Each structure stands twice: as C-alpha cells, then as structure tokens.
Amino acid sequence: MARLPKAIRARLGVRTASALSAAAVVAIALIVAGAALVFLVGQSLRATVKNSAEDRTKQIVERVEGNYEGSANENAREAIDVLATPDDLVQVLVRYESDDDEDHVTVIEAGSDAAGRATALSTIAPQDGKSVVVPNTEVRRANGAPAKVVLVAAGAVSAGDHVVVLVAMPLKPVDDATSTLLFYLMFGVPILIVITGLTTYFFAGRALRPVEAIRSRVAAMSEKDLSQRVPVPPARDEVGRLAETMNAMIERLQDAQGVQRRFVADASHELRSPLATIATGLELMQRGSNEPGTVTALRGETERLNRLVDALLLLARADERGLQPRREEVDLDEVAETERGRPSESRVVAEVHTEPVRVIGDRGQLARVVRNLVDNARRHARSRVVVRVMRDGDTAVVEVSDDGPGVPIEDRARVFDRFVRLDAARARADGGSGLGLAIVAEVVAAHGGTVAVDDATIGGARFRVRLPAQPPVPVGDRTPAAPWQPVASVPAAPTTAVAHMQQPVRDEDAKRDPETRPWGLPAVPTSPPVGLPSPRRRSPQPGMPGGQPGSVIR
Predict the structure, then answer these.
(1) What digits encode the pLDDT tens for the residues 82-135?
(2) 3-class secondary structure, 503
(3) CB atoms < 10 A from the CB of 343, how many?
(4) DSSP character for 479?
(5) In the beta sheet, which residues pair with residue 361?
(6) Cα–Cα distance between 431 and 414 in angstroms, integer?
(7) Of residues 177, 156, 190, the one with CA closest to residue 60
(8) Where are the compositionally biased (Gly residues) regions (predicted)?
C-alpha cells in the first residue's frame, strides 16, 4: 500500500499528483466540516424548538393557575384561546377527584384546533409544579396525521383541581432546514473540490515553469559547450536556489573540462618533443649513423619520457580515486639526507640541515616530494639550495629554499597547478615538465599535510611542507623506520623508552597504492655513496640471454 502512491505519482506527474492531493485534502476537510455543520445546525434548531415549547408551556401554566374564570375547565379554555394558535399542538387535561372513593377522571377540557380533544397528545402526567420534556417523539394530530415533535408536559393546580398542560412543538422545520443544508453541501462540496483541483493544477504548472526552463536549457547543452547557464527566477525560493546550484555545478564542470583539455593538450605537447627526438635518432641510426651522441640523446629522451609518463599516471590515479599512500614509519631526516650526495646535472649542491622527525606515510612518495622540491630549487637557484627538516610541535616541517628569482605573490597558488611554468622563456630541455610541484601538492594532501611557498631568507623562494609528526623518540633509543636500514647507527644501552615506541602502522585491509620510489635516479656506481642504499638488480627473465644485465631498481 505504501508503494501505490509513489507509483501513481510517477505515472501522473507532479502537477496532476499535486492537484489530486489538494483535491483529496479539501474533500476530506469539507466532508468533515459539512457533517459537523449539519449536526450542529440540527442540534441548535432542536434546542430552539425545545426552548419555545418550554416557554409556551410555562405561559399556559401561569394562565391556568391564575384562575381567571373560577373553575379549572373554564380556566383551561380561556388559556388556550388566549395563548395558543389554531396550528399549535396544545392540550389542557383536568383530573377530577371523586368524593366517594379514590377514583378520579381525567378529561381533556381544552385543546387547539390542530390537537383536538378526542385523544390526548401523551399519557404523561407529572406532579404539580413539575415538568417533563421529551425531545423527540411522535403524536397524532386531530386529523390523524402523525407529527414528529418535542413534547413538554407540566403539572399545575387550577381552582383546586390537578391540571396537566401538554405542548408539542413540531420538528418538521428543523428537518427541513437540515435537509436543505445537506442538499447544498452535496452539490457545493464537489464543485469546490473540482475548483481546488483545477486551481492547484494551474498554479502548480506556473510554479514549475522555471523548473521546465532549467530542464530545457540543460537538455540543450552538450559536452562540447558548457558556457550556457540556466535561467534564475527572480524569486529566491527553492527553485531559485536550485537554478543557482545548477549554474554553480555547470561552472565547475566547465572548469574541470577546461582543466582536462589543457591537461591533454599540455601532455600531448610534452610527449611530442621526446618522441620527435627519439624518432629522429632512430632515423639517423637506420641510415648507419653510429655516433655515441645519438645513443646518449635517445637514452636521455627515453628517461625523460619515462619520468613524464610516470608523473602522468600518478596524477591520473589521484584524479580517479585519490592517492592512498602506504602507511609506515618514515624518517624525514633520512629522506632529506639522501639529497646531500645525490648527483645532479646542476652544479648547485644542496645544503641539508635536519633534526630527527618521524611521520606515517609512503616513503617513496615522500621522497618524491623532497626530490621534486630540490630539483625545482636547483633549476632556479643561482648558487645555493638549502634543505631543512625540523619539528614544530606536532608537525614535521620540510623547507626547501633557493637564492633564485623567487615566486611572485600572484602566482604562488597557481604554481602548484599542472603544466605551469612561470618562466615562459625557459626551455623544456632543462628537465622541467611542469608536473613536479603538482605532484608535491597531491602527495602532501594525501598525507594530510599542506604545502605553501613564500620568500626565502637567502633571497629566492622557500617551499614549506607541513605533515603530521609522530611523537619524538630519544636519540639513543631511535631505531630506523622500516623498511630502510640506518646509515650509521650508534649503539646505545636499551632503556625503558624503547617499549613506548610506536610500531609501524599498516592498513592491511585498505587498498593502498603500490610501493613507489622517486623517479629520475641516476645510475649508481659500484661503490654507492655514503647515505644511499645499494641498488639491486633484477634476475634475468626466462628466455632472456644470461649475459643481458637487468635494469637498476631503487
């Protein structure tokens, strides 16, 4: 039964359903009100008739008891002649007592023309000074016709005899009035219901015109052109707020579409340059050119293409479902220390200043954050790049500063967008793709942190990353965060503080991103520099020549 109204509304539509609902509500209200009106009017008219009968009875009793004619029968006739009309149903009965015994005789001494004197209107005989009211009874007129009346019987004494006054007021006027009212209600209520339904249907249609205008405008839009907006009605009601919300949503979709188109265009442009270089090199090699510079150029473009595709895949994964980094303990100071001796095409060497700070996150993604910031600083620095890792209360802070030209205030928010290069004259050959800082923003946000840029004390830009930090651990009790080994551990006697160290936190049930490593690592020599982990090489795959070396993996 609960599903039936929903099915009806689905078939009839909002206008028809609203009209039917309004008509049903009005019908129920009018029926209940009409029934109550008929009942109350009937009761009021009956009370009026009853009061009239009681007043007439009281008047006749006072006239009879006044003994104006000297005998009970004469007093009765005189009262009827004076106070009753021919159409009234009034009788006066006199009870005569016998002198010999206790027997008595009751005689109808007076009666109106309509009541007559042949038959008493009622056998009720109240005592002297008492009265009885019968609100609904049936009596016979003088001509034998029945009449539905309110009967009042009163006892009195006239000239020493017991007198009974009977007054009957017909209820036919009451029945006629209620019948007339019911007749008008039976015809008037359906008309009012129909008028209510039609009016509701009409005004519901007018109220839904803005909604139909919104639907028509949205239906006319295409995914290729989202510049149109739905009309906003002047009234600031629910429909007006709906139109404003629709326009805001369309604007967001338009912005997202523009970002997507720019992303595709920029990605295509970025991929075109290395692909063109690779194609040219392959063409030269096909013609017999064996210059070492060609192979070196192809290797460099391939590495650049690999980094670009890796960055695009990471950003695509962030757009699809958001980054879900692995949750493990990471020592940010160790991550930053790897930048101290990392080789780079730039001659600027990073100055690293750290203090022990541990966070929960994905080591590979956090290392990529630091590496992207350092690479960006090296590309713009004149002579200095400073990396600082410190603790600020419950927050881990990573600062990367350079002495370059800095970032203008109006561009400090836009610098984290994708494919953004503030220096339009800078060539792409310097290694920048415009995605490094966008990846920094995505990874930091996935780890619950923030990244911002301001002016550095050494004259250039300072990028500051803030991440939730783990509680500090005493230096003597510090153990390396899994899965890396410490660069150089200082043996210390175990203390009770070790028992309070937090174990690595891993969400086994959650779907996490695969373990990542910073892209763009150069080949590592046979004896790795101090502070860098030794590379491992893949074992040869089945079917591959045994002498073919595997690729270096970090």
Answers:
(1) 898 888 899 999 988 766 556 678 888 888 888 888 888 888 989 888 999 999
(2) coil
(3) 11
(4) -
(5) 328
(6) 20
(7) 156
(8) 544-554
pLDDT for 302: 80
Q: Tell me which residue has tokens 């690592």.
A: 521
> What pLDDT digit, counting tens, does each position of 421-454 carry?
666 434 444 555 677 888 899 899 989 999 999 9
Structure tokens at 176: 């006629």
Tell me if 131 sits within 8 A of 155, measured CB to CB: yes
- Residue 254 or residue 259, greater confidence: 254
Cross-sheet strand order for the sheet of 385-392: 350-354, 385-392, 395-402, 461-468, 450-455
Q: How far apart are CA 526 and CA 540, in angstroms?
A: 19
Tell the residue number behind the tokens 């009239």, with chain if given. 52
Check if the beta carbon of residue 348 is closer than 8 Å to that of residue 381. yes
pTM: 0.50
The CA-to-CA distance between both ends of the chain, in Å, stands at: 66
| Contact of 388 with 498, CB cutoff 8 Å | no
Return the higher-pLDDT residue of 300 and 476.
Answer: 300
Whole-angstrom distance, CA of residue 71 vs CA of residue 93: 13
Both tokens of 534, joined, read: 């030794």
Q: Which stretches does DSSP call E strand in 410-449?
A: none
